[in-house]
Amino acid sequence: MRAAVVRSFDQRPRYEEFDLPAPSSPDEEVVDVLAVGLHPRTKSGADGSHYTSTDALPMIPGIDGVGRTNSGKLVYFILPDTAIGSLAEQTVVDRRRSIELPDDADPVALAAAMNPAMSSWVALHERIDFRPGSRVLVLGATGNAGQMAVQIAKHLGAAEVVGAGRDAERLAALTMHGADTVVSLAGDADEAMRALGSAAADVDVVIDYLWGSVTEDALVALVMARKDAGKRLDWIEIGSMAGQDIRLPSAALRAANLHLIGSGQGSVPTRNILRQLDALAAEIAKGTFTIGTKVVALADVETVWNETAPAGKRFVFVPQI
Ligand SMILES: NC(=O)c1ccc[n+]([C@@H]2O[C@H](COP(=O)([O-])OP(=O)(O)OC[C@H]3O[C@@H](n4cnc5c(N)ncnc54)[C@H](OP(=O)(O)O)[C@@H]3O)[C@@H](O)[C@H]2O)c1
Prior knowledge:
Elements: E1 2-5, E2 14-17, E3 28-37, H1 40-46, E4 64-69, E5 74-78, E6 90-94, E7 98-100, H2 107-127, E8 135-139, H3 144-155, E9 160-165, H4 168-173, E10 181-184, H5 189-200, E11 205-208, H6 212-225, E12 232-237, H7 250-255, E13 257-262, H8 270-286, E14 292-297, H9 301-304, E15 313-318
Parallel strand pairs: 8-9, 8-11, 9-10, 11-12, 12-13, 14-15
Antiparallel strand pairs: 1-2, 3-4, 3-6, 3-15, 4-5, 5-7
Helix pairs in contact: 2-3, 2-8, 5-6
The protein binds NADP nicotinamide-adenine-dinucleotide phosphate.
């Protein structure tokens, strides 16, 4: 079969022949791959930088996708940390990590949306006691996962959602996705933090895709601006688009009822991630959430790999075009 193959972590995947290994247990089966999203996690797996990387080469990147089983079922699957990923004409899936989709579900929409949507859906269901009526700040709301987080927080009953990000056009579009207030992180950092402190002082939950210096500043801005310092603030670290580390003043932890946690592979056990998939996929299949997609042929993987997707859209590789 043909697949996107990585032979060195400093090179882009190439479209080439690859022998698919046979399933190694009765729980595994081969599926024809229909659509695979190009998520940040897929790219960090392919360059060996993700914290779960095993350094095994050659590898086929791709952590999830939509496929068709031999018996004709349409499935969404998540792969384990494997060198045989989903960016291929076929892959091996574990039935325990797959869910059946309605036959009329759009494979491209599911492949694009499940990973970015799962980041906040799982965090709000599995990492905190999220209550309808809560107020939420999405830090990094202009990315695919951030746009989803705004919609998901509203869908789950948030009374108020503040979206903060850099891109002006996508920031403006967030109000159509349910954001009550948007805050620009572009331009002068002090000004941005003043605006953030005023718009999000009393939120209950922060969904953080940025980390790095943005989170350093935002954390202090929010803690200092809180009217009720004893009110619980769940700060959920999900992505690190603005940096891997932060410097955290000890006073920030003393001055507010701050609960700093992460959500991702490891902090959420696999079984807890899997138990959320059916409900989330059903909402995406129904069209509850909006996500932009840009379909590309898997054969073009090497060309598209380092391109930036059009604003607000996710690249989705389709093997059969
Ligand atoms: N833990 C989990 O379960 C989980 C699941 C899915 C994703 N994630 C992580 O979540 C993060 C976002 O994923 P995604 O799918 O939304 O990626 P994406 O669609 O590529 O969006 C990333 C956004 O980050 C913003 N950004 C980058 N650098 C920034 C900076 N210095 N300051 C402010 N904004 C910055 C950009 O927004 P602008 O265009 O406005 O600059 C960009 O649109 C990634 O780190 C990903 O690995 C985690």
